[in-house]
Design goal:
Layout (H helix, E strand, L loop, with lengths): L2 H10 L2 H17 L4 H20 L10 H13 L4 H20 L26 H18 L37 H20 L3 H5 L6 E2 L4 E5 L5 E5 L2 H18 L19 H14 L7 H14 L4 H8 L4 H22 L4
Antiparallel strand pairs: 1-2, 2-3
Length: 354
């Protein structure tokens, strides 16, 4: 559902329903400390539910019944919603029902018995260790091969608002541009790309967490970064010697070249000096991966790879859970399945009796 559609349907709700939506959104943001994106998704689902309830004769949250919730989910399924989407919408209904009951808007928690299909959980794409190393080292190799930075000078300056084409990664081994076509800013962007890739793979942080880092979040003495994760949970994540070298080079030579009045305390900067935008960061990762002929990979793919390689190297599952910032061990256990699948694939390929 688009934002415009959500706003339109929200305004069409009965006054009591509109007030409940607004109060619920405020609860998610202020009390539950949910992200803007999470609140937006919950609100869109809730507006859809209450709009459907209104068409069934409900004027206030107190009119909601289990049959209404089931009818709404059935309609979503008829409209072609995927199992994963249905599971998320059912979770929205349960969360809202529990909140409304606690706040006196519902006499009983009507969604307690609401069942939902289990979303199909696909195994994440994972790079091999040598592929991940090649990707992380790509900015340095590109500079040595071309004598330039990683930004195509014909693409124009980078933009922290992530307009398409602003930061184009030059293919590894591409011909060197004409003299004078690149400068200090290009080298600074290369250093920025290097620290970005080192942090994503070396720490397994989410792309939003990496882009949200401030310079003061890096403890170079202990070699850890302080990360603010989902739900406002803070954790410290260690990083290795290669990442330390990348941080040193970036803080010494790269960041000062890009920093401007709008930089603030941001660790990672866009080519215009503002905090690096996650959309731009995703494009940077994808560009280097494409240049190397690697499978299509995103920043989250590097996070998947880091977790899998840690477990394959013998790391404890709960330690990996802590590093990744998962609130539930079940979220981390998917990586054990990844490792088993890789083992099975190797067995099928190599064993004569497979």
């Amino acid at each position: 559902m688009s934002r415009e559609s959500t706003r339109s349907r929200h305004q069409a709700l009965p006054p009591a329903m509109r007030e409940a939506v607004d109060d619920f959104a405020d609860h998610l943001a202020r009390v539950r400390n949910r992200s803007v994106h999470t609140v937006r998704a919950y609100v869109a689902d809730l507006v859809s539910l209450l709009d459907h309830a209104g068409r069934m004769g409900c004027a206030t949250p107190a009119d909601l019944e289990l049959a209404v919730l089931r009818s709404w989910l059935a309609k979503q399924r008829t409209l072609g919603a995927a199992r994963r989407s249905l599971a998320r919408r059912a979770a929205t209904a349960r969360t809202f029902s529990a909140w409304a009951h606690r706040n006196g808007l519902l006499a009983t928690d009507v969604a307690v018995a609401l069942a939902s299909p289990q979303g199909h959980r696909e195994l994440p794409t994972v790079l091999r260790a040598d592929q991940a190393a090649a990707l992380v080292e790509a900015p340095a190799r590109a500079s040595r091969a071309t004598g330039t930075g990683t930004v195509d000078p014909d693409a124009g300056p980078g933009d922290d608002r992530a307009r398409p084409g602003d930061e184009t990664v030059r293919p590894v081994g591409a011909a060197r541009p004409a003299a004078g076509a690149v400068g200090v800013g290009d080298e600074a962007v290369r250093l920025r790309d290097r620290i970005l890739l080192e942090l994503l793979y070396g720490t397994g942080v989410r792309i939003s967490e990496a882009c949200g880092l401030d310079v003061t979040d890096v403890d170079q003495g202990r070699r850890v970064v302080r990360v603010l994760g989902k739900g406002g949970r803070e954790r410290s994540v260690p990083y290795g010697v290669p990442a330390q070298r990348a941080i040193d080079d970036w803080l010494r030579s790269g960041r000062p070249a890009l920093a401007g009045p709008g930089s603030g305390a941001a660790l990672l900067l866009g080519a215009r000096g503002g905090r690096l935008n996650p959309t731009t960061a995703r494009r940077i990762v994808a560009g280097y991966a494409a240049d190397l002929g690697l499978p299509r990979v995103s920043p989250h793919g590097l996070r998947h790879s880091a977790a899998t390689h840690l477990l394959e190297g013998g790391a404890d599952l709960r330690a990996v859970q802590e590093l990744l910032g998962h609130s539930s061990l079940g979220s981390t256990q998917i990586y054990t399945h990844v490792s088993v699948e890789r083992l099975r694939a190797a067995y099928r390929q190599a064993h004569p009796r497979a």
